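Two quick folds needed for the group meeting slides. Do the first one here.
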Amino acid sequence: MAEFRAIIEAELDGSGSTQQREALALAKELRDASTKEHRDFVEMLIHDRASEIAGPPIDHGYDHDGEYAPEYEPKKESEARWFADLAFGKRVPIDFYHAKYLEQLDVKRRTLADAERSMKYLLEWCQREDIPPFLSDITERVAVRFMDELHTVASSSHPRTLNKYLSRLSLYWKWLKRRHEVERNVWDGVTLSLPNDKAGDRERPFTDAEVLRLLSGPASPELHDLMRIAALTGCRLDPIVCLRVRDCDGGNFVFKPQKREIEPRICPIHPDLREIVARRSHGKEPDAELFPEWPYPKTGDREKSFKASGHFLDYRRSIGVDEVVPGHRRSKVNFHSFRRWFATKAEQADQPPHIISAVIGHSNGRQGMTLRTYSSGPKIEQARRCVEAVHLPAQPTSN
C-alpha cells in the first residue's frame, strides 16, 4: 500500500490542494482499473485514506436500526466525505477536464484565452458565492444566476463580451456531454440580450473623404502601407499583418484563413499595391515577415495585429476620423471600415456580388465559391477585375 501511494504521489501534477490532487489521482486509477481485483484494491485504499482524514472517533451513538455509529469531529468528517466523493468519481471539479478540452481545440490564441478566462471567472464566482465547484453542482438555475452576475467578476460588462464567455462554457459542457461526463448542457440558451442597434448606430464604411484623410495624413510608413493594402483588398487586419514574402508571389496575396474559412484565401494584388509589395519583399527570404514592425506580442493570447490595431486607433482619432454613438463601446468607423469601403466601391463598379464575397472572404453570398481553387482560368480573372475596379479616392484639384 505504501508503494502504491508513492506511485500516486509521483503522478500528482502540483495543482490544487494535496488532498484534492490525491483524490483525483485515485479517481483516475479507479477509472483505469482493468480487473476487479485492481478496482477492489483502489476502493479499499480510498476508504482507508478517508478514515485517516476523519481521524479517530470523538464519541459514538446509534443509528436508526440501533447499530453502533461512531461520531467524528464535524470538520474532519466533512473533509473525509468530500475526499471520498472526489476519489469515487461522485463529484468532479468543473475544470477537471478543461485542460484536455483545450488541447483538442483548433482555434486562435485569442479564442483559447477566452475559454481560459471563462473558466477562471466561473471558478472565482463559485468561490465568492460559496457554490461547490463541481460539475454536479452547476445546474441550469446556477448557470442563469452566473449569467446575471458575470459582469461582477469579468473585466468587461458589455453583453456581447459576456456572451462570448458564456458561449465558451457552453461549448465545454457540450464536449463533456458527448463524453458522457454530464447529462445535459446547462448553458444551452443561457445568453444575455443585446441592445437593439438602430440603423443609424451600426458600424459603417469609411467615406471617400475619410479614406483620403487617412491616406494623406501623418501616419507612419508602415501604417500607410497597411491601410492601402486593406483598402484595395478588403482584407481583415490580422491576415495582412501576418503576410510573409512567400504569400505575395505570383501577383496574388495568399491570406491565412479567418473566421469560418478552412483554407488560405487568394486575392489578386492591385496594381497600386505592387510597389509596396516589391519594396517590402526586396532582399528578403520567403519566410520573412512583410510587416516586421509589428511582431507577435509577448502575451500568448494576442494576435500579431494587436499593436497595429492600437497604432491605427490612435492615428485615426488623432486626425478626427471618428464617430462614437452614446452607449456604444466602439466607433462606427474602425479598421474594418476599409473592408466595408472596398465592398461598397466594388459594388458601385458593377462587380458581381458573389465575386466580391469571394474576394473579401465573406461567407454570406459566396455560394460555395473559393478563390483557393481558382487556376489561371476565367475565375481568377473575374477576381482580378473586381479588385482593379476599386480605386483610391483622388485628392480634389483646386481651380
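Then this one, please, same format:
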Amino acid sequence: MREHTRTNRVLLALLGLVLLGGGLLVLAGGADIYRRWNLTPPAGWPLTTPQDVLIPRADQTRWLDQGWWWPTVIAALILIMLLALWWLLSQARRRRPRKLVVKDTPREAVAVNDHGLRDALTTDLDMLPGVRRAKARFCGPAHRPQARIGLTLDSGSTPGRVLEDVSATVERARRSARWDELPTHVRLGVAPHGPHRVE
C-alpha cells in the first residue's frame, strides 16, 4: 500500500468516526432518547432534548460586535477550503514514473524508468516455481532504491525454497543495475484452493 493511500484511509476513518459520533449525539437529543432510556448525556453537550439547538442564540451573536470576528471566520474558512483543495488535487494527480539511477555506465549515470525495471523484476518473479502471481515495485530515493515484492504462492509450494529463488532474482536485478545494495521487503500469501474430496 502506498504511503499516501494509508494516510488517506487513516484521515477518512478519523473524520468518519467524528462525524458518526456527532451525528449519533444529535440524533439522541432530537429523538429524546436520553429521557426515554434514562441515559446521561455527555457533560456540556447542548442537545439533550428535541427543543434544544446546537448553538444558542446568545452564543450566535456573542462575537458579532468584535472587529476580529469576521476576519478570523473568513480566514479559517479559506484555510479549510485551501487544505481541501490541496488534498483533492493530490488525489487527482497521476503518479508519474520515477527515474532510478543506474550506476557504472560507460558515460555518466543513467536514469531508467522505474516502470520498466518493475515490470522486468515482476516477470522474473512470475516465472519462479511455486509462484502463482508476483508484484514488484521500487520505492525510496532514486540513487538508493528499495524493492517491495508481493508474492502469491501455490498451495503446495515451499516458502523457504521460494525465498531462496527470490533472493537470487533480486540479486540479478541489483547486479544488472550496478547498485551497491537493494534492500527488499517480501510479503507472502498463499493462493486459495478448493476443498479436497475424500473417498
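Slide caption for protein two: The chain is about 45% helix and 15% strand.
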